[in-house]
Amino acid sequence: MKIPYYPGCTLKTKAKNFEISSIAVAKSLGVEFVEIPRWNCCGAVPSLSSDDLIRHFAPIRNFIRVEEMNKAGIVDNEYRMVTLCAMCYNTLKMSNLRMRRNKEDLDKINDVMYLETEHYKQDVEVVHFLEILKNIDANKLKKNIKNPLPDLKVSPYYGCTLLRPKEIGIDDPEDPKIMENLLTNLSVTLVNNPLKTRCCGSYQVVSDKDIITSLGYDILNNAKRAGAEVIVTSCPLCQFNLDRRQKDIIELHHDFEPIPVLYFTQLMAFLFDLGEETYGFEQNYIDPKKVLNRKELVSN
Amino acid sequence: MSNKLILSDKNVEFTEKVNEISGEVVTLCEQCGTCSGSCPLVAEMDITPSNMMRLVELGDEEVLDTKTFWVCASCFTCTTRCPRGIDIAKVGEALRQIKLRKAIDRIDIKNIAEEDRKILPQVAIVAAFRKFTG
Amino acid sequence: MEQINLKKIPIYILSRKYYVPESSTIITAMEYAGFKLKKGVGCREGFCGACATIYRLPGDYKLHGGLGCQTVVQENMQIVQIPYVPNPKAIYDLEQLEPDPQVFLEYYPETFKCLSCNTCTKICPQDIQVMDYVQAVVRGDIEKVSELSFDCLSCGLCAARCPAEITQFNVALLARRIYGKYLSKKGKFVETRIKEIEEGKYEEGYKELANMPLEDLKKKYFERDLNFDIT
């Protein structure tokens, strides 16, 4: 299956490990990500004002690219665009929804974007990789596990943008199960963090790091209290805030024991034994190798 | 003594402006406090989200001098839980926009520490620019 | 002297109407109209980017950008030159930089405000896909930025129009410098030539040129061989 793939800016640099592990995992499951030609940054946060249409330009251009891919035969009648970054997912999907509800807005935007050869016809659907994985047979997932870690205690962390607002979320915003079901199928030990949908502070990291440190401390501690050894997430900003800011947490709380925060696809690539070059652990601030390799020895 | 609340034209105008930018009807708010109870960042704010809603309902422009809508991380928890169906995140965005559209930026790009520029992921920078600069 | 009777057409320069010969360029038309151009004109060959001009045509709401020396006047065209756009120039030492995408965030963080509106591409007199290279900056693709921005003359029209107040051309310049120094394939000829220079192979020749009468120098310049091998 070939599917248009929207990377988003962070996945090309700071979250390269998210991209390479995801592409490898997808490939091992028979899904080929075809990077959207000339994709542009989505804007990272959805436009929330009724009147600033200019912020919808970026998402809509990407939708037009997907339509062009179909027209050029790069993909075959595949109008879903798969995203990995939870922020991109949210921003793109919110814009798509807005355009579906407001034809007049779309007309205005199409008019200003006259250099585009095609107007956006609203046939693109924004999906997240987790939704693709959800539709893959559990046995197929299980068959791919070459490096089982049944004792590894994994706590999923959703953050905000995969789930809220309700109308664009991939699951129930109060009680999501999509990552839990995936982890269960991956035969690891699931640990529930009561704060798994609590905001990490997001872009406030640019204006006030202390906010992130205090929110992160609560989120990480709740996961650890529940017994988690690793946290998995799908958002490069959550990952950064929860992983990198542990440096600041340790400075404030000397007894704090660091915990690795991975992209869920990094864990999958490891479980599937897809090769070290697909894990990208060197980009994780808190090194996950220790806990994963220890487990490997135990399970062998 | 009458308990009737009298709002000036200026008050009404401000409320309407917020309604217009946000696309919401703030006067639907019944001050139940669910947003404040749900907000993960409430401890960092000077007034609670429900206080913010009340001030907007009353058309009190002093709300623009509070920190609350700047501290908001647009996590949409209030939006999801509001029993009156108000998209409170959009109300916060409208208040930010009212300030930003007067060319009053919340952050100065120059002031992002060099150390942070080296490590921050693009998504953080792009998002912060959209939320904090006009 | 033979009188050439060129047809005159009306154009508007800074809102005032002038009749200028048709098929003249904006620069020659302005000079014909009596403007003495000290700024806003340079090489007159489309290379220096000094004569950026914006104009509108009758019945067309679109604002166009063009180089004054390359753009031919049209009837009732309204024009104004934008000879210079104030622009922040980052100070950096190329020797100290690393070919890391994070340099953009370090020196031109405002680039990340790009809204993908494409206004820059619309105005570019060089038909560069400016927005596309700005987006390549955002995702850290230094090579792509260099490739897409190669024809940029730094005329500044993109920066004048940008709603996010980005100085596109300076960011692109940084990218091309990094690309040229650290990432591009190096031709052998550069190495050879540098060695030759260091060994003093051209000392004599330079001296000869420096002492040559101006007329001879001009003659030599125009007769020079342009088909040297750079592979």
Structure description:
Chain A has 300 residues and is α/β, with parallel strands linked by helices. Chain A is built from 13 helices and 8 strands. Chain A has helices spanning 16-28, 57-71, 86-101, 103-112, 129-134, 138-144, 178-185, 204-207, 209-225, 236-243, 246-252, 264-271, 289-299; strands at 2-6, 32-35, 80-83, 125-128, 153-156, 189-190, 230-233, 261-263. In chain A, the strands form 2 sheets. Chain A has a 4-stranded parallel β-sheet, sandwiched between helices. In chain A, α1 links the parallel β1 and β2 (32-35). The mean pLDDT of chain A is 96. In chain B, 50% of the residues lie in helices and 0% in strands. The mean pLDDT of chain B is 95. Chain C has 231 residues and is an alpha+beta fold. Helix content of chain C is 36%, strand content 11%. Chain C has helices at residues 26-32, 102-107, 119-123, 130-138, 142-149, 157-161, 168-183, 188-198, 203-210, 214-222, and strands at residues 8-13, 16-21, 52-56, 64-67, 77-81. Chain C has a 5-stranded mixed β-sheet, with helices on one face. In chain C, a hairpin with a 2-residue loop joins β1 and β2. The mean pLDDT of chain C is 94. Chains A and B meet through α8, α9 and α10 of A and α1, α5, α6 and α8 of B.
Q: Give the fraction of residues assigned to helices of chain B.
A: 40-55%
Largest sheet of chain A, in brief, is:
4 strands, parallel
Give, in order, the helices and strands of chain A. EHEHEHHEHHEHEHHEHHEHH
Spatial gap, N to C terminus of chain A: 34 Å
Strand content of chain A: 5-15%
Give the rounded overall mean pLDDT of chain B: 95
Low-confidence sequence ranges of chain A = none
Number of strands of chain A: 8
Poorly predicted ranges of chain B (pLDDT <50, ≥5 residues)?
none
Mean pLDDT figure of chain A: 96
Q: Order of strands side by side in the largest beta sheet of chain A?
A: 2-1-3-4
Count of helical stretches of chain B:
8
Q: Approximately how much beta-strand content do the residues of chain B carry?
A: under 5%
Largest sheet of chain B: none
Overall shape of chain A: globular
Task: Tell me the series of helices and strands of chain B, N- to C-terminal.
Answer: HHHHHHHH
**β-strand number of chain B:** 0
Radius of gyration of chain A: 19 Å
Percent helix of chain A, as a range, is: 40-55%
Radius of gyration of chain B: 16 Å
